[in-house]
Amino acid sequence: MPSAIIELNDFSYEINGKSILKDLCCTIYKGEHLSIIGPNGAGKTTLIKCIANILQDGAGTMTLKGQPLNTYPPKALAKIISYVPQAEEANFPFTVSEFVLLSRYPHLSPFTSPTQEDFKAVRQALEQTDTLEFEHRKMNTLSGGQKQRVLIAAALAQQAEIILLDEPTTFLDPKHQSDILHLLKAMHEEHDITIISVTHDINHAATLSNRILALKEGTLAFLGSIEECMTNETLQPIYNKEFLFIKHPVSNLPIVIPETL
């Protein structure tokens, strides 16, 4: 039985008096790939920002490795969790290599300069995400897809145990979508990294994840296996529409196909 790495008990979050997340109870296990799905406004991004401790002061409890999340010092938390936002949030006045190097700060001692190991981690992350050619360009000159790949490079260079991703394939063309998804799969399988990923693409969730968590109006609508999730019995109440399914020709798992209009 895998060990719990994150636990939520009656966790809620409000913004300006409006309830965004409501009484969430769930356990996320070390080494799993959990996808978070749900309609617009369901609270998906809010949830992973709470897990990243970007949004604070939620009600209820959230623990990381058995310790209350809000008791971790920032540097200690950054050794465990890295957060990859949506590319539209990444307008930083740094070059790509400078930006990715910033992600190494949890591994640096105070008043010390980056080491060869830090520069090696940065270069390796840029190579893995096919962004080395941009290393001298400013972040605010990149396209959305290019920024997204650089953000994932920074998470890789950070070498955290948990990676949180908010729509990691948004803005990416089909080739780079495939490259990033294969990279995430390899990270998960080969390095035992726990991945928690928000996605609107139900098929990506079904083909990459161990489990799927679905939110609707801030509440937990589903948490379970791919086979249990990919049915109209589960998805129709969440999205208020019916879906068509076929079996994936390789994995044999159910996937959604487009409707004919």
Task: Give an account of the 3D structure.
The protein has 261 residues and is α/β, with parallel strands linked by helices. The protein has nine helices and twelve strands. The protein has helices spanning 44-51, 74-78, 96-102, 116-128, 144-158, 174-191, 202-208, 226-229, 232-239, and strands at 4-15, 18-29, 33-37, 59-64, 67-68, 81-84, 162-166, 194-198, 211-216, 219-224, 244-247, 254-257. The strands form three sheets. It has a six-stranded mixed β-sheet, sandwiched between helices. Strands 2-1-4-5 form a four-stranded antiparallel β-sheet, covered by helices on one side. α4 packs across α5.
Number of domains: 2
Overall 3D shape: globular
Major beta sheet summary: 6 strands, mixed
Total helices: the number is: 9
Write out the CATH superfamily name of the largest domain: P-loop containing nucleotide triphosphate hydrolases
Q: What's the CATH C level of the largest domain?
A: Alpha Beta
Spans where pLDDT lies below 50 across 5 or more residues:
none
Helix content class: 25-40%
Number of strands: 12
Q: Kindly name the structural category.
A: alpha/beta
Average predicted local confidence, pLDDT? 91
- Read across the widest sheet, the strand sequence of neighbours is 6-7-8-3-9-10
Distance between the termini: 46 Å
Please give the radius of gyration in angstroms: 19 Å
CATH architecture of the largest domain: 3-Layer(aba) Sandwich
At the fold tier of CATH, the topology name of the largest domain is Rossmann fold
Proportion of residues in extended strands:
25-35%
Following the backbone from N to C, one meets helices and strands in this order, namely EEEHEEHEHHHEHEHEEHHEE
